[in-house]
Amino acid sequence: MSDNTSDQSAGGYYARHIFFCLNERPGGEDCCALHGAKAGFDRCKSQVKAAGLSGPGKVRVNKAGCLDRCAGGPVAVVYPEGTWYTFIDDSDIDEIVESHLKNGQIVERLLTPPELGR
């Protein structure tokens, strides 16, 4: 796939999807919802829209239930690449949008360690 998000990949409707785990576990069990996942989702959605990256052939920002990577939370995953990110604040989200969603460049410093699961 090219770095240009306006290209549709293999007949797909969107060039990239980013899914944010917004799962909230009962009883105060650790989960992405307790670590600012919704704020990250909201920021990403607004930044993608502001950058003109949203819509068919471009980027879709989605909510997800548990992605089973709680130990790295909050997490988001970008497809079709299958790139997992852990983020802390707005600047992390902005970097994911600018580098990966817009320019196709993985943000190495935000990658979720591969061994982290639930």
Main attributes of the structure:
118 residues; alpha+beta; Glutaredoxin; 4 strands; 23% helix; disordered N terminus
Can you describe this structure?
This protein is α+β, with helices and mostly antiparallel strands and 118 residues long. The protein has a domain at 16-60 and 74-110: Glutaredoxin, CATH 3.40.30. It is 23% helix and 18% strand. The protein has two helices and four strands; from the N terminus they run βαβββα. It has a four-stranded mixed β-sheet, with helices on one face. Helix 1 (37-50) packs across helix 2.
How is the topology of this model organized?
Elements: E1 16-21, H1 37-50, E2 59-64, E3 75-79, E4 83-86, H2 90-102
Parallel strand pairs: 1-2
Antiparallel strand pairs: 1-3, 3-4
Helix pairs in contact: 1-2
Compressed to H and E, one letter per element, the order equals EHEEEH
Radius of gyration: 14 Å
- Terminal Cα span: 31 Å
**Proportion in β-strands:** 15-25%
Would you identify the CATH architecture of the domain at 16-60 and 74-110?
A: 3-Layer(aba) Sandwich
The CATH homology group name of the domain at 16-60 and 74-110: Glutaredoxin
| Arithmetic mean pLDDT | 89
Number of strands: 4
Q: What is the CATH class designation of the domain at 16-60 and 74-110?
A: Alpha Beta
Sheet having the most strands: 4 strands, mixed
Strand order of the largest sheet: 2-1-3-4
User: What are the segments in which pLDDT stays under 50 over at least 5 consecutive residues?
Assistant: 1-9
Q: By helix and strand content, what is the structural category?
A: alpha+beta
Shape: globular
Number of helical regions = 2
State the helicity in percent bands: 10-25%
CATH topology group of the domain at 16-60 and 74-110:
Glutaredoxin
